[in-house]
Amino acid sequence: MVRMVSATELKPTTYAWPVETTELRVKAGRHLAVNGLDLQLGTGVHGLLGPNGAGKTTLMRALSTVHRPSGGQLRLLGEDATSSRVLRPLRRRLGYLPQHFGFYPRFTVREYVEYMAWLREMPKAAIPGAVQRAVERVGLTARADSRLKALSGGMLRRVGIAQAIVNDPDLLLLDEPTVGLDPEQRVEFRTLLRELGTDSCVVVSTHLVEDVVAACTDVVLVDEGKLVWQGLPAALIQIGEQGGTGDSPAERGYTSLLSSHRSAS
Ligand SMILES: Nc1ncnc2c1ncn2[C@@H]1O[C@H](COP(=O)(O)OP(=O)(O)OP(=O)(O)O)[C@@H](O)[C@H]1O
Questions:
Q1: Fewest CB within 10 angstroms: 174, 198, 203, 261, which?
Q2: In what order do the strands lie in the sheet with 31-41?
Q3: Phi, psi values for residue 63, rounded to 5°
Q4: Distances in Å between the alpha carbon of 86 and those of 45, 129, 203, 262?
């Protein structure tokens, strides 16, 4: 089959990093949950790790443009994401699965993903095919016409992933996407992540270090709203081979990096 290549795909990329933050500060309520974060993320799958309260969800909300930073710089896909002028075209190129996403229980899977495609201002004629592809990619073809209220928690999470990828985003943000997925689905999801990361920037927030090692090209560790460490999964494993607590080298690498960061600060 011959695929049509759009003008957008042929346009040269004029930015070095799909995500670039400098001294980024973002509030959650009155709390400065992201507190001076410097980060550069390229094409690939970035696993965002950190303990409870580290600021991962707040960062994801800022990257998705839902939450406006209170200071510092945020550049997304080459645009200054703090400028309201660029938000609308920028949002068409983003995909976001929030930690808790709202939905209308009486919508079917297909109707919901269609609705999200429409909100992202996709061309009308492209929507039915894009919805079908997204639903197939998350393994929900057989349930495409089921109402959301009839789905299990893991299936709903997969619907959330489908709506996030329906517009083939250049920047895809997934906040704890594997919560509630059964082991078989998690393995399939890792394959999907690897595919998505070949030509876009994917940021996945998770507590599952093994998912990061299996599917990510880059590890980003944050604590108290700051960057603690960034590197290859293999480097995390290597650190874990020298010490730390946990059931796998990657987990030991994670705990070891966090404890040396905490004792240094
Ligand atoms: N609405 C709010 N008001 C005040 N503080 C908040 C609010 N939301 C989050 N916080 C605080 O901001 C910090 C970062 O929260 P955030 O949810 O971003 O962390 P997280 O890394 O996603 O945590 P988890 O792994 O538990 O999901 C925490 O200390 C949290 O208590």
A1: 198
A2: 31-41, 19-28, 71-76, 79-80
A3: -65, -30
A4: 25, 28, 21, 38
33 touches ligand 1 (CB under 6 Å) = yes
* Type and span of the H or E element at 35: strand 31-41
Cα 83 to averaged position of ligand 1 atoms, centre (Å): 25
Q: Are 76 and 15 in contact (CB under 8 A)?
A: no
What was the pLDDT predicted at 179? 87
pLDDT of residue 98: 94
Distance 28 CA to ligand 1 centre (A): 7
**pLDDT score for 102:** 82
206 Cβ inside 6 Å of ligand 1: no
Give the span between the Cα atoms of 19 and 33, in whole angstroms. 19
CA–centroid distance, 60 to ligand 1, in Å, is 11
Q: Which two tokens stand for residue 128?
A: 């039915």
Cα 205 from Cα 220, distance rounded (Å): 9
Give me the pLDDT at residue 26, please: 98
- Which single residue is written with the structure tokens 């016409």? 145
Which are the contacts of 138, defined by CB distance < 8 A and separation ≥ 6? 158, 159, 161, 162, 165, 189, 192
- Nearest-angstrom CA–CA distance, 149 and 181: 17
**Alpha-carbon distance 250 to 47, whole Å?**
12
Contact by Cβ (8 Å): 201, 170: yes
Give the SS3 label for residue 148: helix
Residue type, 62: A
